[in-house]
């Protein structure tokens, strides 16, 4: 028998472990109830048994960093089968080893700052502007943010501007996304079965696009500088199925994440008038430097210093990705404990982001804490990981920042607004507001476009 020193904790009840406690805890208004209670009892590393698996939970920044950095060496990413089916086996999120490394760097290079600067920024600005043109009176911000995010991703992946085809793709795609948030019980859940059907339809539509672009590529015409173009030109001879899974995973990965942060940034700003005033001033100054209708330039984006504080703080307080799961591929001895081979590990980013040891009044939205002269600016890098880290660092992190900043720019310079109804932030089954944040918008004067 192996001699193991397991972290403290409890297996809970036979078979179901502490699953019910986990689910019911997250129905409270507290963002980290399950973790908070156990961290108090056992410390920042503890074991439990949830969703049928023995799991070590970490609220410890050093262990979280170790988990991220050792991906592919001592640990592997691990998703339930129901999620893998929706993603498709060739998705970047499921790839491992050398192929993962290659495809991760291809994705990173597709959304790096020079590409963003040279052409993506203008596309993002134009498409956000077109969406905002249609807004009047009552707008459900979360729904609109999702529409914007979807259209931007389709443009970046395949160079399509929004039209009837993208809209019908979006309707199917929304059904796929719902499948990610149902309990993984494929036989019993109609939402899940509907999601699988919708995935087939989305994949069929994307396959047609890939085939047509491949033909054009082989004939040497119509080369486009989008993700699909990069995949066709990569020399790896990817099959249609591989490319479709890959594109679909990129659509999924940036969708809920970016749109939720867009919505919650507006909610937090609305509730923090001083921050909103400072943000407006920053953006009004940018508008004052150029014609009212002029597109945003890279230098404008780089001058949005307070906006970055707002984005950082929204990601800290209410990131939809509370942490990441991995599976230990060998016994891991760390910090005096053993994580046995085959066990799951959950590195909780949120538990660190909301720990008062690192962030004063940690549960309060305070964008000024990101100013370079604040004490928190000296925190080590491992206490702020909204985009993960290591070999699976989010390849869309820079893109997401640009999208969020451009959205805030166009939104605050074009509109004033008030919440249409009381709406509450909840953390279960995902981070969102209960009513998808309805607001009443009013256009500001004509030179704010
Ligand atoms: C606010 C927005 C976003 C947040 C908070 C976010 C967060 C994250 C996090 C934490 C991970 C690491 C997952 C892990 O280690 O298992 C990740 C991975 C990933 N993200 Fe993002 N993301 C955002 C936007 C985007 C966008 C816009 C894209 C589109 C290009 C994207 C594409 C991906 C992909 C493909 C992965 C998987 C990487 C891999 O497994 O190698 N993300 N994201």
From TrEMBL:
Involved pathway(s): Steroid biosynthesis; Plant hormone biosynthesis; brassinosteroid biosynthesis; Hormone biosynthesis
Keywords of this entry: Heme, Iron, Membrane, Metal-binding, Monooxygenase, Oxidoreductase, Signal, Transmembrane, Transmembrane helix
UniProt keyword Transmembrane helix, yes or no: yes
Cellular component terms (Gene Ontology): membrane
Gene Ontology biological process: brassinosteroid biosynthetic process; brassinosteroid homeostasis; sterol metabolic process
GO molecular function annotations of the record: heme binding; iron ion binding; monooxygenase activity; oxidoreductase activity, acting on paired donors, with incorporation or reduction of molecular oxygen
Cofactor: heme
Annotated InterPro entries: Cyt_P450 (IPR001128), Cyt_P450_CS (IPR017972), Cyt_P450_E_grp-I (IPR002401), Cyt_P450_sf (IPR036396)
Transmembrane segments: none
Residues at which heme binds: 394
Cellular compartments annotated: Membrane
Chief place where the protein resides: membrane
Listed CDD domains: CYP90-like
Membrane topology: Single-pass membrane protein
Gene3D superfamilies the UniProt entry points to: Cytochrome P450 (1.10.630.10)
One Pfam family linked to the record: p450
UniProt record similarity statement: Belongs to the cytochrome P450 family.
PANTHER family: 3BETA,22ALPHA-DIHYDROXYSTEROID 3-DEHYDROGENASE, CYTOCHROME P450 26
Protein name (database record): Cytochrome P450
Native source species: Vigna angularis var. angularis
């Amino acid at each position: 028998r192996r001699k193991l020193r397991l972290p403290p904790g409890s297996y809970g009840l036979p078979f179901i472990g502490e699953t019910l406690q986990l689910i019911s805890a997250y129905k409270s208004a507290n963002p980290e109830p399950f973790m908070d209670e156990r961290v108090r009892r056992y410390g920042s590393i503890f074991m439990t048994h949830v969703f049928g698996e023995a799991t070590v939970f970490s609220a410890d920044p050093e262990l979280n960093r170790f988990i991220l950095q050792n991906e592919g060496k001592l640990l592997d990413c691990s998703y339930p089968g129901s999620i893998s089916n929706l993603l498709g086996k060739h998705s970047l999120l499921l790839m491992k080893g050398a192929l993962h490394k290659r495809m991760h760097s291809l994705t990173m290079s597709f959304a790096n700052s020079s590409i963003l600067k040279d052409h993506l920024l203008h596309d993002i600005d134009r498409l956000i502007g077109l969406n905002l043109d249609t807004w009047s009176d009552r707008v459900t911000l979360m729904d609109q943010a999702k529409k914007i995010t979807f259209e931007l991703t389709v443009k970046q992946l395949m160079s399509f501007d929004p039209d009837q085809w993208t809209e019908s793709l979006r309707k199917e795609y929304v059904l796929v996304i719902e499948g990610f948030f149902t309990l993984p019980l494929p036989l019993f859940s109609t939402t899940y079965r509907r999601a699988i059907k919708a995935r087939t339809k989305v994949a069929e539509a994307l396959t047609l696009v890939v085939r047509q672009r491949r033909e054009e590529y082989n004939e040497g015409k119509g080369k486009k500088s989008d993700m699909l173009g990069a995949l066709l030109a990569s020399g790896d001879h990817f099959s249609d199925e591989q490319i479709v899974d890959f594109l679909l995973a990129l659509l999924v990965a940036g969708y809920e994440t970016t749109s939720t942060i867009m919505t919650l940034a507006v909610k937090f700003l609305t509730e923090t008038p001083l921050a909103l005033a400072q943000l407006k001033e920053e953006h009004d100054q940018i508008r004052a430097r150029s014609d009212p209708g002029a597109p945003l330039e890279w230098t404008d984006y780089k001058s949005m210093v307070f906006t970055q504080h707002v984005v950082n703080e929204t990601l800290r307080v209410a990131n939809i990705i509370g942490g990441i799961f991995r599976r230990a591929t060998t016994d891991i001895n760390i910090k005096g404990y053993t994580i046995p081979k085959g066990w799951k590990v959950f590195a909780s980013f949120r538990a660190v982001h909301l720990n008062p040891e690192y962030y004063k009044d940690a549960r309060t939205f305070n964008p000024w804490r990101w100013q370079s002269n604040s004490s928190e600016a000296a925190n080590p890098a491992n206490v702020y990981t909204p985009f993960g880290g290591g070999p699976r660092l989010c390849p869309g992190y820079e893109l997401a920042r640009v999208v969020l900043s451009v959205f805030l720019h166009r939104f605050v310079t074009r509109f004033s607004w008030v919440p249409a109804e009381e709406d509450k932030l909840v953390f279960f089954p995902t981070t969102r507001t209960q009513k998808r944040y309805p607001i009443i918008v009013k256009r500001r004067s004509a030179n704010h476009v």
